[in-house]
Amino acid sequence: MTIEIKVPVLPESVADATIATWHVKAGDTVTRDQNLVDIETDKVVLEVVAPEDGVLSEIIHGEGDTVLGEQVIGKVEEGGAAKATPETQAPAAASESAAPAASGAVTAIKVPVLPESVADATIATWHVQPGQAVKRDQNLVDIETDKVVLEVVAPADGSISEILAQEGETVLAEAIIANFVAGTAAATSAPAAANVVAEQEDESDSDALSPSVRRLLAEKGVDASKVKGTGKGGRITKEDVEKHLKAPAPVASASSPTPSAAPSVAAGERTEKRVPMTRLRKTIANRLMEAKNTTAMLTTFNEVNMKPIMDLRKQYQESFEKRHGIRLGFMSFYVKAVTEALKRFPEVNASIDGDDICYHNYFDISIAVSTPRGLVTPILRDTDTLGMAGVEKGIKELALKGRDGKLALSDLQGGNFTITNGGVFGSLMSTPIINPPQSAILGMHKIQDRPMAVNGKVEILPMMYLALSYDHRIVDGKESVGFLVTVKEMLEDPTRLLLDV
User: Fold this and answer.
1) pLDDT value of position 117
2) How far is the C-alpha of 169 from the C-alpha of 227, rounded, in Å?
3) How far is CA 488 from CA 49, 306, 348, in A?
4) 3-state SS, one letter per residue, for 45-103
5) Nearest 10 degrees: CA dihedral of 37, 42, 44, 50?
6) Where is the composition biased (Low complexity) (predicted)?
7) Residues 315-338, mean pLDDT to the nearest whole number
8) Where are the beta strands (DSSP E) in 285-364?
9) Higher pLDDT residue, 197 or 45?
10) Is the preceding omega at residue 437 within 30 degrees of 0, hence cis?
11) Is 480 exposed, middle or buried (0-12, 13-18, 19+ CB in 10 A)?
12) Which of 220, 315, 316, 463 yields a CA-CA distance of 20 to 30 A from 49?
């Protein structure tokens, strides 16, 4: 059965895309959920994965081609061999003639080229061990810098022969961290050897998992060793994870050992676990200390009635989503209100550089995003030129990149003002810390029904506390309070955002 490989549906604001990298060739065997090709738009890079096990029989559009949404770019023969066409035979023949030279060749695994402002990196996690069979483009090791995590993948089928840099070691750009032997996995043709490889794959934790399965396991907090794989060679599929999550928790029977009989930890035993801080956590800690020690930070508070925005969302949510393809959330209102307030109070949009005050005539807002590795603040740029839909799409894109560990250094550099929303975790009030060299940060909090006095009567209204922390060296009390009141007025009467009043 032939399955068409198509370009994903592109966002409404994206007209076309470009084929960036094919990770497989025509004639290659592919497994379900394996990344086949990266497709690049002007905003994001999209991964297209194999829908089933099979063979990539044809590549219709090569690297560099411009393609449209849902356009067919390749074909996969499900579960079988590629069709013996001249187009597919040529690459296969070429690879066969090259195989003897490539098999057994030793390749150095190096640290990727680091961004200009990053001096070194740390080996975070090795996903494979020496001698373990791996496939081309399988993630071998995570390398952590101050801001992003880089994945180093296998250049071909084979195995790691030697690991030269262990977890926790500091490495420089392009340093050799391991040696890789190509073709060793293919050389083991005996049934017994095949069984050994299958056992290694089945016993492995996440090294044989596709990116989408790894992400799902991380999101749900599931240990891969507890999920029974039904894929090829015992691999875990997304359906296996979902089935594991839906399965009822095992109930202890009368014959089962009781928790008190478990030999794991004696009653009253006190244990500790000591782990080194990640580079990202160290950077966060250093920047927070820098903010506390180098700024004259104060926090001012106010509260806002969220009923007008909630009513507006309820009225237009369905039509907004139909037109723009994304839900209307609260963050777009916060961003637009803050952008308008920054226009009126340029001191809040400024920063101190030595003995100078630098006033910015553009509006780049940092959005605090919680990721599995810590809090980061990617930048939503030129918010004064974005509509509500543009803001929502930009925030969603940054949140997904943060969750998947795909934030680039360029996503994190700059920013004039930060918005952090602790309300999503249930925080009622907080005093956020400034993100230097910015001069202020706005904290949003939990929306909670409270009795409020309205025209001499008590009404139950959805209220939210606002907290503005600011650097008193550059922002005076008058400007800080005026800024916060402007944000409050914009949120309580969203029509002001449209009429510019």
Assistant:
1) 61
2) 31
3) 45, 10, 16
4) EEEEECCCCEEEEEECCCCCCEECCCCEEEEEEECCCCCCCHHHHHHHHHHHHHHHHHC
5) -20
6) 247-267
7) 91
8) 297-305, 350-353, 356-359
9) 45
10) yes
11) buried
12) 220
Q: With contact defined as beta carbons under 8 Å apart, do 431 and 454 qualify? A: no
* 342 has pLDDT over 90: yes
Instruction: Check residue 191 and give its pLDDT.
Output: 40
Mapping DSSP to helix (H, G, I), strand (E, B) and coil, where does residue 310 land? helix
Instruction: Name the helix (H) or strand (E) containing 421.
Output: strand 417-421
All domains of the chain in start order, with CATH: 2-78 (2.40.50.100), 105-180 (2.40.50.100), 295-499 (3.30.559.10)
- 363 in Cβ contact with 394 (< 8 Å): no
Q: How far apart are CA 3 and CA 145, in angstroms?
A: 40
Predicted local distance difference test score (pLDDT) of residue 195: 43
**Other CB atoms within 10 Å distance of the CB of residue 475:** 21
User: Scanning the structure block, which residue is given the tokens 């560990």?
Assistant: 405
Q: Which tokens in the block code for residue 440?
A: 């202020």
Largest interatomic CA distance in the chain: 88
| The two structure tokens encoding residue 113 | 């080229």
pLDDT averaged over every residue in the chain: 80
Other beta carbons within 10 angstroms of residue 206's beta carbon come to 17
CA distance linking residue 67 with residue 7, whole number of Å: 8
Query: Residue 31 — φ and ψ, nearest 5°?
Result: -115, 155
CA 139 to chain centre: 16
Beta-ladder partners of 302: 466
Q: Which DSSP letter does residue 455 get?
A: T
Residue 282 DSSP SS3: helix
Which pair of tokens denotes residue 82? 């590629």
> What are the catalytic residues?
472, 476
Tokens of 195: 């069984």
Residue type (1 letter), 170: T
Distance CA 223, CA 226 (A): 6
* Residue 242 pLDDT greater than 50, yes or no: yes
Rounded Cα distance between 270 and 258, Å, is 21
- Minimal CA–CA distance to 419: which of 357, 466, 486, 485? 466
Rounded CA gap, 379 and 401, in Å? 12
Q: pLDDT tens digit string along 24-82? A: 888 888 888 888 998 877 656 788 888 888 899 899 998 888 888 888 999 988 875 44
- Alpha-carbon separation of residue 317 from 105, 312, 313, 326, 494 (angstroms): 58, 8, 5, 9, 15
